[in-house]
Design a protein that fits this description.
The chain is of the alpha/beta class. Helix 1 packs across helix 4 and helix 4 crosses helix 5. The strands form two sheets. Strands 2-1-3-4-10-9-8-6 form an eight-stranded mixed beta sheet, covered by helices on one side. A two-stranded antiparallel ribbon has the order 5-7. It contains five helices and ten strands, in the order E-H-E-E-H-H-E-E-E-E-E-E-E-H-H. Strand 8 and strand 9 form a beta hairpin.
């Protein structure tokens, strides 16, 4: 499966990609420097990852490119904040971040699986997603909400209907904390999250091949 990750050159993104003997750099087919995005052919990738805390002004400049990629059947994964409209139709709501909830004995961060049997939770637990979040998404009714806060706002969701390709959206920032070198559980979350997405995309490809084979027999 071919994949690319957008990279802006900041220190935590560099460490995220290169620590543990290039664990994540070697996982992705290509690393695309965001200032070279204008000349990159995204259509060759099964999925593209936009890391946390990217310069969203630059992303907005390339909004038509992301739209073309998604409409062509490519899959896009976004981490963290989304305060500029670099993909149309995504609704983001900012919340002040509670960084210190865990210091109180018995405290919990209220996050909930919409469906305990969702395939993501074969790879992670809800607790693996609990460190903090910077905001929420308010997806349309047909979107697949996966993880929500206590009032049902989305922390993780998938949009399978707006484009030919899928949008995998989370307000969580595991890549940032991997790059900063703290909150160890984010590695468990990230590995499981990516494994689920790759499985999901592979299943979509199998369905597409089956449909084509069925059509050729008509």
């Amino acid at each position: 499966m071919k994949s690319a990750v957008l990279y802006s050159g900041v220190s935590y993104q560099h460490f995220f990609l290169h620590h543990k003997n290039d664990k994540y750099k070697s996982r992705f087919t290509d690393v695309i420097y965001v200032l070279d995005l204008h000349k990159a052919d995204l259509s060759v990738y099964d999925y593209v990852i936009v890391l946390t805390r990217m310069n969203q002004d630059l992303l907005v400049e390339h909004a038509p490119k992301f739209q073309e990629y998604l409409d062509g059947g490519g899959h896009l994964i976004s981490f963290g904040d989304f305060d500029r409209p670099w993909v149309s139709g995504v609704k983001w709501k900012f919340y002040p971040t509670n960084f210190h909830w865990w210091v109180n004995p018995g405290a919990d961060l209220p996050l909930y699986a919409v469906n305990d049997d969702h395939p993501l939770f074969r790879y992670i637990t809800v607790d693996d997603a609990k460190w903090h979040y910077h905001g929420v998404f308010l997806p349309h009714e047909e979107a697949e909400r996966v993880l929500v806060n206590e009032i049902g706002e989305s922390i993780i969701y998938v949009d399978r209907t707006t484009h030919r390709g899928n949008l995998y959206m989370t307000t969580l920032d595991p890549d940032y904390h991997m790059g900063q070198g703290f909150i160890p559980k984010v590695e468990t979350f990230l590995d499981g999250y990516l494994a689920w997405i790759e499985e999901d995309i592979a299943n979509l490809k199998k369905i597409s091949i089956s449909n084509k084979e069925a059509s050729s027999c008509l």
